[in-house]
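User: Please run a holo structure prediction.
Assistant: Happy to. Please share the sequence and the ligand.
User: Here you go; the ligand is iron/sulfur cluster.
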Amino acid sequence: MNIRLDPSACVRYSSKLSQCRKCEEICGFEAIKCEDFKISIFQERCVLCAACVGVCPTEAIEMKNFSIKDFFFDFIKEEESKIGCKYNFVCLSALNVEYLISLALIKDIVLDLGHCENCELDEKVKKQIESNIKEANFILQKISKKEIKSEKLLLQKEKKTDRRDFFKAFSLKNAQNLAKEKEEELKYLKNPTVSIDAAQSAKKREKIIPNKRKILYSVLKRAKKPNEYDRIESNKISFVSSKEIDESCDNCSICYRICPSGALSSNIKESVIYFDDMLCLKCHLCHDVCEKDSIKISPFFDTKEFFNPSQKVLKQFEVIRCNECGNFFTYLEGEKICRRCKIEEEEAKNLWGF
Ligand code: SF4
Ligand code: SF4
């Protein structure tokens, strides 16, 4: 089994209105299928290029044998500056823009694109690698003097035979792990559709910030601040956004309840909608679920947010007690009764004629 999907992190499992299918779109082998609000993974077709891992905004997909977070922490300790798919990493498409910026702010890095030319992977994966490097360099240039270099080095990993690896292959623990893996693989082959269990559904209610964002956030905290901040056009940045809410919003609350990272939030009375740019994953879920299309991406993202993240008030509401039931509700105009009492009143009128 090559990749794993955590349905509690995937936005499609939050709402059938979610339009996210980034993983399916990048896969050149039809190994991922997004249907309704579920995802099927055809493990037998997956070649482990890891492009889906790189594009998933919420880190819902991970590789079985490779952790990008672990690579990051090992790599920053080493003197090595080169990263290559046949050297010390998997396909470079797994290194998304946030990881690229974080690495470049810590040390000089050179990406080896030498193997891309003759790689049998889909053209869109190669384009994704180029686009990630371009975007990371564009942002780096706005906030620092750093730059990611890419060269055609054709680096290869040295083959070493390690006695410990040899004996490990025959250990009882390894045999047990292999058996467990085979069992999971068979389960996937029989039913490629990933379902969500009760524990994962409960986890869905938690606001989770992916590792890539936590890493970027802590790297930026330690990085030298630029003398001046700049603005970036929203269509030039793929992983965060600034938001606005227009007059049509009636505080239905779905956006801040469903936002996976807590970028959108409210207070205990639900009288405010707050937004924190640096927590936004640009997963688009809040837009997909907003019936009135009230929430919009602002035209620009301010680079000051990278260094001094702030919580903005997007909208404020008057919250009062309903004259009928006494519960709090968002008062917009007219009679001081809540939506539920209003519906009940209208139903009573239709039924009894008063
Ligand atoms: S959130 Fe990730 S796993 Fe879910 S549909 Fe989007 S890209 Fe795929
Ligand atoms: S604010 Fe919207 S786009 Fe950003 S993480 Fe929350 S749901 Fe996704």
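The chain has 13 helices and 17 strands.
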